[in-house]
Amino acid sequence: MSKINSVNDFVIKFANVNGSGSASANQMFAKGVFRSGIPVSPKNIFPSNIQGLPTWFEVRVNEKGYLGRREGIDISVAMNPQSYQKDVTELKENGYLIYDSSWKREFGRDDINVLEIPLTKLCVQEFTNPKQRLLFKNLGYVGLLASILEMDKDIYISLIEEQFKGKEKLIEPNVKALNIGYNYAEENFKDYCEIKVKKSDKTDGLILTSGNDAAGLGCVYGGATVCAWYPITPSTSLAESFSKYSEKLRVEIGTDKNKFAFIQAEDELAAMGMTIGANWNGARAFTATSGPGVSLMSEFIGLAYFAEVPTVLFNVQRGGPSTGMPTRTQQSDILCSAYASHGDTKHVLLIPSDPKECFDFAVEAFDLADKLQTPVIVLLDLDLGMNDWSTKEFEWDDSNQYDRGKVLSKEDLDGIERFGRYLDVDGDGIPYRTYPGTHPEKGAYFTRGTSHDEYAGYTEDGVKNAEMLTRLLKKFQTASSLVPAPVFNQEKNGSSMGIIYFGSTDCSMQEALDVLDEQNLKIDAMRIRAFPFNLEVWEFIEDHDLLFIVEQNRDGQMRTLIMAEGGIIPDKLVSILCFDGQPITAKHITNKINTHISGKPAIAMS
Amino acid sequence: MTYIVKPKNHHPLLEKNKLGLTRRDYEGAVSTLCAGCGHDSVSSAIVEACFQLSIESYKVAKLSGIGCSSKAPAYFLNQSHGFNSVHGRMPSIATGAAMANHELTYLGISGDGDTASIGIGQFVHCARRQLNMTYIVENNGTYGLTKGQFSATNDLESKSKYGDDNLFPSIDLPSMAIQLGASFVARSFSGDREQLVPLLKAALSHKGFSFLDIISPCVTFNNHKTSTKSYDYIREHNDALSKPDFVPMGKEIVTEYPSGSSIEVPLHDGSLLALEKLSKDYDPADKIQAIQNIQESQRDGKVLTGLLYADPKAKDLREILNISDKPLNSMGKNELCPGADKLEGINSGLR
Question: Are residues A181 and A252 located together in one domain of the fold?
Fold first, then answer.
């Protein structure tokens, strides 16, 4: 039997039953590879369910650092008889199938290598506690993998020790479970597997973390003190990350009191209301949600836009429309975020592409919201938010200052004859504001969602209202010079074709660009990082005759936004779409580009 | 929300409070509500209460939702920041604002539509969380601004101005507030200034969620003969539990009630609410009794008013969440940012 042979380049997929504790073991496997110095991209493909349904966990190991999803499974750890059929089908020819042979099975494929390990039987022999018997099967196969891939077992032992720090009693049984699989493989599968993990140094300067975790930490560093939120997959762990880090880093010495407020609201409407209320009163506040939450928050987003209250919202996108696929990924809230709420509204979007950028953009979002006095929506997606990524280390310069924007102090107010909340004093469309409680006689005003004049007084004068809307547009123009510029994948534009992409597809794009390069297809590429689009975005579009726009939604929403905002002709913009809930692959992108260039339009997804 | 700025000319002999301010200093713009609207009396009572308490207006945030009642904050406390938010969502704005700075006084004005229908969820959770604020419902049983539809507090037997029957029973907000854990609950009548002002003063002095349901008749759409929220009906059916007298901190109690008929409710800031009992089964510290009193009065076709329930020792949201004594909005980078060293530690933990 032939076997797939590779070093530090493979995809392994775990098939489990959800609620069986497998995710943390699978995570541990991935972290062990990362600690061996090879970048990994674990992806948890889970059902919207707590216990009993099939769940998968895919880990791509790639020394070159390609972290996008890749088609084809090299090793399948099939621990769920419910999904054997699918798991075996997905396995590449000459791949490896590991399964629990406590109950023997035939798989009907003679082109794969089957590794049998009676995990249940072994765990029943070694453990008496029924819960442990079930749970430790997971660590058992991690041990087996460490052996067949010739990894350093001590890495896993240290991971177990770290995980159970403070609960030392649990270390011994966990190590025992690891050894069950490890020892079994040493005896039965020595030199069997031809896929290896060889220690490397490609993770120097990298950390393994998720976008949600990073963004929550970024909120702590960015000076957020109020987080009001409502649980919704896949954004929940972002709010929880803020709480977790705040409890460690934001407790007053001496009093043990919190320098933060963490409030689980009754719904997304209240979460957004609290965020606006806190920001209005001078605290940095944010909320995190997903598509359905954005729909519910829309009325309030319009209020914050029109009354000009800084607001930070993280939208961790999931599969839509409606309740959609809550546990799958998409980039399908571009338009509903950019234009959230009724009437003429437009919002600043920040679109990070990896956890490091999630951290940076979280910090940036608060400065931008304060400077612009408007909602700033940070767009993540489930893949970026919930999965661990090999990403650059977080950086912080202690000389960084928070920019609170145009806020008048008591002394400032003393020097002003008449304060006008919505007066465009500086000509940039951004007025000055005051916090409640600043001055006994000056600076009080009425914040309202009704039409108002420069002094915040109610007006039904249509001309006044039109002036206010026009000023808001000027402010949006100002925003385009303040938001992060795009990132280019070329020194200067050298091709007549360009690719536009954004967010979490970055990792697959890097790989796709290398593949195209090998095919001698030189295509320029630009990663959009924010809306409103700044000048460099428009120049890039101007400089190319044909542009591919890669996005994970059905309707080409970024394409629509570019056409609407820049008056770009549709023929120039070709969509490359993926909306099956899985992250797009490099192969998908290159296939579509090749197909288009060879004369067939690349609009539909495969 | 139309408003007209009032002229600033004051009579030189107007009475002044401890801050040297007159009642005029606590006023707002000229009201554009209908002449005779109960809400204007409530605004006036708020002015009086704030004047008497010598509150610094600029340390008050007045918040509202949408509707006639929600216009009211424009008509008092000119030097306070105001926030006229969206329909039914004042409680969440107030919650966020109060988290940012607990040192201000938060005064929310809502209506029966704003609270009992579209905003009932936020009202419920705000009460349950014990937010330190005063929450007033100017309750007239009707949607005035959209011209007279029934609201959810309109009594079943109360017909519309046009003779339509009300098909659904009313929601009793004070009973709900007590059940939800509000620590100060009262009902009053916009036309009973003697009762309303001391209750307002006590509500503003209480630490925790103070809820005031103020029957405030709508002269245009719900003041007819078959209405149970008309001036005449409330005057005839007002069943006052007690006669309140607010005693500021450090003042001697001079109110003299016959022995055994008075109850004193000490408030957080050292002030006191002295109550002359008008009903024998009255104990504002007893939650169950309070709900029973409301139910019985309702059964008897009366409108129970006065302080219904108070727990002056209840914790407020900030205490429950163990938030710093220093307002969060006053903290700068040095207090909030953990710094580069800590981040390096976090990086190490993620390798």
Answer: no
**What long-range pairs does A459-463 form, CB within 8 A, spacing at least 24?**
A460/B2
Distance CA A447, CA B282 (A): 42
B222–chain A nearest CA distance, Å: 26
Reference B25, options B77, B61, B74; nearest CA is: B77
Chain B residues touching residue A206 (CB < 8 angstroms) = 351
Instruction: Give the other-Cβ count within 10 Å of A454's Cβ.
Output: 17
The CA distance from A577 to A575, in Å, is 6
pLDDT one-digit tens code per residue, A181-217: 999 999 999 999 999 999 999 999 999 999 999 999 9
Which residues of chain A make contact with B104, given a CB cutoff of 8 A? 281, 436-437
Q: How many CB pairs below 8 Å do chains A and B form together?
A: 232
Spatial distance between the Cα atoms of A516 and A594, rounded to a whole number of angstroms: 9
Which residues have a Cβ under 8 Å from the Cβ of A466 and sit 6 or more positions away?
A: none
Whether residue A359 is found in the same domain as residue A417: no
Q: Choose the closest CB to B81 out of A226, A398, A436.
A: A436
- Residue A322 · residue A294 · CB < 8 Å: no
Cβ proximity of A318 and A582 under 8 Å: no
Determine how many CB atoms are found less than 10 A away from the CB of residue A106: 6
Question: Between the CA atoms of A100, A105, A111 and A114, what dihedral angle is there, to the nearest 10 degrees?
Answer: 30
pLDDT for the residue numbered A604: 45
In chain B, DSSP finds a helix count (H) and a strand count (E) of: 12, 13
pTM, two decimal places:
0.96
Q: Are residues A133 and A224 in the same domain?
A: no
Tokens of B127: 């009460």
- Cβ atoms of B61 and B83 within 8 Å: the answer is yes
Residues A249 and A373 in one domain: yes
B2 closest CB neighbour out of A263, A270, A458 = A458
Say which residue the tokens 């929403």 belong to. Answer: A557
Distance CA B106, CA B85 (A): 14
What DSSP designation does A503 have? G
Q: Give the pLDDT confidence score for residue B255 in this predicted structure.
A: 62
Token pair 């762990």 in the structure block, residue: A237
> Which residues does chain B have within 8 Å of residue A158's beta carbon, measured at their own beta carbons?
none
- Cis ω before A532 (30° cut-off from 0): yes
Q: Which residue has the tokens 């049983």?
A: B141
Nearest by CB: B96 against A223, A228, A266: A228
Interface confidence (ipTM) of the complex: 0.96
Smallest Cα distance from A281 to chain B, Å: 5
Task: Residue B92: give the domain boundaries.
Answer: 23-330
Determine the Cα–Cα distance for residues B273 and A424; give it in Å rounded to an integer.
48
Per residue in A468-498, pLDDT (tens digit) is 999 999 999 999 999 999 999 987 778 999 9
d(CA A386, CA A358) in angstroms, rounded, equals: 12
Confirm if A74 and A53 have CB atoms less than 8 A apart: no
Residues with Cβ within 8 Å of residue B56, at least 6 apart in sequence: A440, B19
In a domain, B52, yes or no: yes
Q: Which structural domain range is residue A433 located in?
A: 410-482
Q: What's the token pair of residue A292?
A: 């359905």
Q: Is residue A118 part of a domain?
A: yes
CB contact under 8 A, B86 and A446: no
Confirm if B51 and B17 have CB atoms less than 8 A apart.
Answer: yes
Q: Which residues contact A7 (CB under 8 A, 6 or more apart)?
A: A63, A195, A196, A197, A198
Facing A221 at nearest CB: one of B61, B91, B337: B337
